[in-house]
Amino acid sequence: MSDDKPNIPPTACVKLDSDALLANWRALDLMSGAAKAGAAVKANAYGLGARNVVARLVAAGCTDFFVANWQEAQEIEDLTTGKAQVSVLNGVRAADLPFALRSPAKPVLNSLEQVQRWKSSGRSCDIMINSGMNRLGINVEDLDAGLFAGMAIDMVMSHLASADEDGPQNGEQLSRYNAALEIVTGKRASLANSAGIALGSDYHFDVTRPGLSLYGGIQRPDLDGVITQVAVPQAEIIQVRSLQAGDKLGYNAQYIAAEPHKVGILAMGYADGYLRGFSNNGMFMHDGYLLPVLGRVSMDLIAIDLAAAPCLQEGDWVDCEYDLEVASAQSGLSQYELITGLGNRLARDWT
Questions:
Q1: What pairs with residue 264 in β-bridges?
Q2: What is the CA angle 234-278-272, rounded to 5?
Q3: Of the candidates 64, 88, 125, 299, which lies 20 to 30 Å from 262 by C-alpha distance?
Q4: Distance between CA atoms of 53 and 57, rounded to whole angstroms?
């Protein structure tokens, strides 16, 4: 008996545009001025597939990647070794040391305890400064140049909490970060995320760390017209139904037909990351026709209105309206949740 798995065609997928991904990285690199844009590829490259994303970005010239933990670093190790540097944002626990000491990736040291844990290794590291977000990072007031004597520090970094807004916190964090750079010396400095890049050259330093905008997210008006959609979920119509006036559709009858029309049932639902915030609110498309979501999104199925495209039938495919800004407004979900939440049942189809 063959061990080969059967090739079962998917009923839903995510179309992923390589050209759009690379165009976004190049645009963000250009916006970064004298700084070089890296790439945040944590959370499986925001749900789109870390290995596919990293391979494309390495080929395009990206030389710095940022992951959350050592498992993520290991997953892309063969793609980056000798070609790019990988920073592990969550630092290094005692339990991480056996692997971290033989990994080519660098820990981003987030506490004085982590500094002491890593110092004797003599190996490269990054340092995270808490400039006001109060998640990970060493407080500015706890810094002492002597703590880092003899360490091979590559990047001294911090993270902006509110770069998508024009508020005072951005300037406050920038001031604290600059104060930290007077104490901690590294080869390079890094502060700006995707939205931070759009704040201007004061925030760029040596390396920027775009994440969401690589994958189509737009957090500030400055990025409109610059960033291109990368991910488009698609689903197959597995049944066409004809509703009559008064017919109820889906759980709890959240849609009742006012007149006769056709509906298409799609093999996709909240188990695939298309969450219930799109109930009676989301949109699909086919050949320019808009096909609204009707009723409640369920675990594995969605109903769409075929009134604008009654020729559609079982086996036809439709595109989901998943421009992240638009879909966020439709669903009430953040752009980050929308992109990272795309489920594993959806085949990733790169073009």
A1: 240, 304
A2: 45
A3: 299
A4: 6
The residue ranges of the chain whose pLDDT is under 70 are 1-3
16 φ/ψ angles, rounded to the nearest 5 degrees? -120, 130
Q: How far apart are CA 6 and CA 32, in angstroms?
A: 46
Output the pTM of the full model: 0.95
Q: What is the largest CA-CA distance in the chain?
A: 77
Instruction: For residue 112, count CB atoms less than 10 angstroms from its CB and return exposed for 0-12, middle for 13-18, buried for 19 or more.
Output: middle
Query: Are the C-beta atoms of residues 196 and 203 closer than 8 Å to each other?
Result: yes
14-16-20 Cα angle (round to 5)? 150
Helix (H) or strand (E) holding 80: helix 77-80
Q: How many residues does the chain have?
A: 351
Given a contact cutoff of 8 angstroms between Cβ atoms, the answer to whether 243 and 262 are in contact is: yes
pLDDT, position 1 = 45
| The pLDDT of residue 18 | 98
Active-site positions read 42, 251
Q: Do strands 261-266 and 231-243 pair parallel, antiparallel, or not at all (unpaired)? A: antiparallel
Task: Kindly report the number of other CB atoms within 10 A of residue 101's CB atom.
Answer: 11
Pairing assessment for the beta strands 317-320 and 231-243 based on DSSP bridges:
antiparallel
* Alpha-carbon distances, residue 52 vs 21, 46, 208 (angstroms): 11, 12, 21
